């Protein structure tokens, strides 16, 4: 059977439980028509590059599955009907990625980096740490 990846974006005002229900609905559509879901990943609430239907953010969900082509047609038909899903894309792939996807690895890395800021409080250098720049006007006059 062919391998597919299906990613959909759900509205930003949905609760996480509602997003999980949308993923479960997609899984049921695939499995009831003879397909098999290999992996489901929720990438979380992320900012969009541009506004889509008055949304600046969206919940991202990815499904890796194997199924006949008629299952993809049914999944996309049901996805178009749902008002909570603002965008979707289904792609046929040669093989599924093993382990977590690149988006999940990116999320883990950014969480690790956010927690490792030390005492700086998330700010870069202090105002007085100007390095080899010219002295401020007050310092030059003194």
UniProtKB/TrEMBL annotation:
It comes from the Bacteria. Residues 92-142 are annotated as: Disordered. SUPFAM superfamilies: Ribosomal protein S6. The keyword S-adenosyl-L-methionine does not apply. Keywords: Ribonucleoprotein, Ribosomal protein, RNA-binding, rRNA-binding. This is Small ribosomal subunit protein bS6. The gene is rpsF. GO terms for molecular function: small ribosomal subunit rRNA binding; structural constituent of ribosome. The lineage of its organism: Bacteria, Pseudomonadati, Pseudomonadota, Alphaproteobacteria, Sphingomonadales.
């Amino acid at each position: 059977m062919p391998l597919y990846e299906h990613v959909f974006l759900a509205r930003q005002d949905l609760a996480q439980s509602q997003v999980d229900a949308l993923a479960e609905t997609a899984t049921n559509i695939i499995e009831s028509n003879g397909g098999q879901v290999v992996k489901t990943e929720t990438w979380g609430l992320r900012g969009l590059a541009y506004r889509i239907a008055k949304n600046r953010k969206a919940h991202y969900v990815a499904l890796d599955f194997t199924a006949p082509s008629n299952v993809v047609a049914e999944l996309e038909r049901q996805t178009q009907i749902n008002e909570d899903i603002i965008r979707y894309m289904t792609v046929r792939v040669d093989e599924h990625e093993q382990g977590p996807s690149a988006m999940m690895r990116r999320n883990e890395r950014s969480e690790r980096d956010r927690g490792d800021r030390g005492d700086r409080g998330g700010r870069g250098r202090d105002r007085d740490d100007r390095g080899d720049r010219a002295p401020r006007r007050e310092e030059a006059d003194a």
